[in-house]
Amino acid sequence: MKDAPGTRDYDWWLLAILATICALGVLEIYSATHGSALAGMQYKQLRWLAVGVVLMFILSRIDYHLILDQSLILYLVCIASLAAVLLLGNSRFGAKRWIPIMGQMFQVSELAKLIIIIVLARFFTEVRSDKLDLRDLIKAGLLVGVPLVLILKQPDLGTAMVLVPLLFVGAFLAGLQWQHMAAIVLVGALLVGAVFYPPVSKHILKPYQRERITSFLHPEEDAKGSGYQLLQSKIAVGSGGFWGKGFGNGSQNQLGYIPVRYSDFIMSAWAEEQGFKGVLLALGLYMALLLRLVQNAQRAKDRAGMFLVMGVAAALGFHVLVNVAMVIGAMPVTGIPLPLMSYGGSATLFVFMAIGLVMNVRLRRFVN
Amino acid sequence: MKARKLARGVCVSFSFGSDNRLPQARLAVVSYIIVGMIGVLLLGFWKLQVIDSDRYGQMAEQNRVRSIPIIAPRGRMLDRDGRVLVDNRPSFSVLLLRDDPALVEKNLPALADGLGLSVDDLHDQLQNTRNLPKFQPIVIKPEATSADLDFIESHRADIPVLEMLSVSRRRYLPNGFLAHATGYVGEASEQQIEASNGKLRPGDVVGKAGLERQYNDILMGTDGMRRVIVNSVGKEVDHLSQQDPIPGKQIQLTIDMDLQQVAEQSLGQRPGAVVALDPRTGEVLAMVSRPTMDPNDFAVRISKEEWKQLNDDPLRPLFNRAVQAQLAPGSVFKIVTATAMLEDHNPPENFETYCPGYGTFYGRQFKCWVLSSRKGPTSHGTLNLHGAILHSCDVFFYTAGMRLGIDRLAYYGDKLGIGHKTGIDLPSEEPGLMPSEQWVERVFHRKWYAGETISVSIGQGAVTTTPVQLARLIGGIASGGVFKQPHLRKDLQNIGEERFAISEPTVEKVTDAMYGVMNEPGGTGAALKLKDIEFSGKSGTAQVISYDKRAQIGKQRKFDDNGWFVGYAPKRDPEIVVAALVQEGGGLHGGDTAGPVVRDVVKAYYDKKNKKLQGQTTADNSKPVPHNAPAAIVAPRAVIVKDEEPAGHAALAQDQR
């Protein structure tokens, strides 16, 4: 199974799309922060990207079967580190999400996402049937449920939510039966309903989460409070118009009306300065990225590789959907960054490591 | 369960190659879902960026651009010689920036200490303004001292929540000089804002009383506007455009600062009022009301307690007695009765009465003031009209009033201006009251009692006048029946003039008698005589309650007599007429209390006029008076009780009961 795939076999198209999105991100981080106390942030982001590329390369070289073999250990490490964060982690913004590694603060839950992708790929591979029966579905659910609850405890609703599409897409490709899918959709709808229905949500959500829901539903009632962020983001996007205000000219961006404009709301800043044409470019790139991932899955050598690639696609797709929907005010503020464009160390490293897994699968498609 | 399965995977490195059929159909479904998802997101952007783009563009502009008013300074007020009476001074307010509540909270004790404020008060203020947008700072100290400014500057780094706002404040002369005429300014009330058709905004400073209110539109000017770009924490980052404010226009008043000063000092601190008019033009030369207040207090911000105190003060310091005090004119009214008698020839002009100190009318005894006079005779003997005015004999005027009847008295009172506003350019002037048969019918739904006529004929009973009304009335009669509208603004257009034809012999007789009051032996104002000046006038003392009642209750300050004196010079077609009201106890009469005030003002008028004629004063006059020059208010003058006949003093008819 050991092999030495050549550089020719890397997915250069995928890398080109990746690089372009990152370039857009770095440019917009520069535009959003150059006049402020955060000036120079684009260099930090470039540094993270460099580290990411190295990690991607390393991960692509270790045969993914070996990685899948270590699923149990990885899973236990994941659970243990999530528990450790809860017990020992550093609090920032009222949530325990970070642990220090080599002087940098890392979000353990980003690593957890990667491990769950691997663990689920292993699990679904072993199902070995065209149909996923209820027993296996429940097992997969429990497998995801434990880390999900731990991440919810941090609390980090956004990252916890990402685990759900991993499970769902995996199960779907593993032969999820239609009646089960209908049941899951029903339960999901009930959950969403509960979150938006105050008498129920007050038992299951933290106050800050309920506030975000409320301000999402009624942003105008609290234009200077928590509804402020969504409203300002919509103003930024809308005022950009078709052609945009030009690089460095977005008043919402430059004057700081867009909240965390270099990170979670970077799409808002991009849309203001580059307009609908810029959005078309960015979302087109994301679509190309995701379709390219699906294509890689289709050409994978085995089901295990396919599940790995599709896990990555599910995670990235979900990030894009939730983040961009938030930017246009179609979803509440969840704190999910836009992959590759938003500034952020852990999130960037996660994406590159995930892409490393994809490359890993691609490199080995012709072997054996 | 899952552990077992996973454990098996670790032990047995199972083959991945056994079943490698990929679910191509389902992968294709995922592709379509991806395309669909991106499409839906693009539709969302299309809606915001293309369909609703204009709306959001405007909202972004509203975010970005803030219009900051530049307050136009109010116009100054000058006296008739161009000396400054009211102007503005620059001042600073201390602002608290509330963007970061935690930072505010942290610095509250330090800044309270540095600015000499109470932490509790600041907490209250923050609590009261918690609904305002956070970027809007609040004024925590409207009037910053230089020490406060130093404090803010030196702590910019460690207490970053303070800011200074430059404002322009009204400056009035100290000690309440001319305070009731100028009035004061304050923040526009909700009613004023509503009534202004959008011209006023909350927080605008407008005239609240006096000339400040009357001429607010002229004085106020138009605020300018500065359009700036602000960032999300409200900090100015750029400047777009500026529309300069148009300062308010200054107005010149008819007030003569020199005469005003004399009037203020002469009245002292006694409750009352002084109005000096030029009857030829209606110009108000001086206007004083006591007790006074300091409008500078209102120029900053008056606390609720202070305001309540001013309003609840039984002496009503906010009340401009010169135009608002409606009081019985007492014997000054005898000039109205005399005019009526002479014009109607009823009783005829050579009519005489015998005054034994009282008279009986309609079965009731009415006293003449002379009966209870402390010195001299207790009766006036036989008097004609001239003597009756000189001695202010009540019995004569009771008789004349009875012969005339209330209809004729009311006719003349009305024509001479009682019951009508003079039209002076001040808000809230009161009209006084000239009672009549129609009036009691309308208000009390009863018939007029004949006895009431007796009281009214000497200025008691229901008849009331304001000081400015009496000045206009006496000045108008001495001018031969020409009544000019009193006014304070020098270049007021279309000054009203009323003419009431009074025959020349009547004017001659009445003015002769008023000249006699000062210049003939036995006149009630003989002590006030001025050398070389045809100083004429009439005194009056109006009782607040009847003699009998006062004896029952005992002497209390609130039942003080209203001492009146209206004096003018020269005898015919006067240049100046001064009405003074002194509300003071001690059984003193108008001639003693108010008379000297009038004399002081008239004398000052002639002193200044003579100086001017000698050409000595041009330089002197043009010199502006410094603002801190004390308009010193001297202690109430000791009233000189002389051996002269005090003014009329009659029993108040109780018939209305």
What does the secondary structure layout of this molecule look like, with pairings?
The complex is a heterodimer of chains A (368) and B (657).
Chain A: H1 12-33, H2 41-61, H3 64-69, H4 71-88, E1 90-92, E2 95-101, E3 104-107, H5 108-125, H6 134-152, H7 157-173, H8 178-196, H9 198-204, H10 207-217, H11 227-240, H12 251-254, H13 266-298, H14 303-327, H15 345-363
Antiparallel strand pairs in A: 1-2, 2-3
Chain B: H1 2-11, H2 24-51, H3 53-64, E1 65-70, E2 77-78, E3 84-96, H4 101-115, H5 119-128, E4 138-141, H6 146-154, E5 162-172, H7 179-182, E6 185-187, H8 190-195, E7 205-207, H9 210-214, H10 216-220, E8 224-230, E9 236-243, E10 251-252, H11 257-267, E11 272-278, E12 283-290, H12 296-299, H13 304-312, H14 321-324, H15 334-344, E13 353-355, E14 358-361, E15 364-367, E16 381-383, H16 385-391, H17 394-415, H18 437-444, H19 450-456, H20 467-478, E17 482-484, E18 497-499, H21 504-519, E19 536-542, H22 547-553, E20 561-569, E21 576-584, H23 590-593, H24 595-613, H25 618-622
Parallel strand pairs in B: 2-10
Antiparallel strand pairs in B: 1-8, 2-3, 3-4, 3-5, 6-7, 8-9, 11-12, 11-21, 13-16, 14-15, 17-18, 19-20, 20-21
Helix pairs in contact in B: 11-24, 15-17, 15-21, 16-21, 17-19
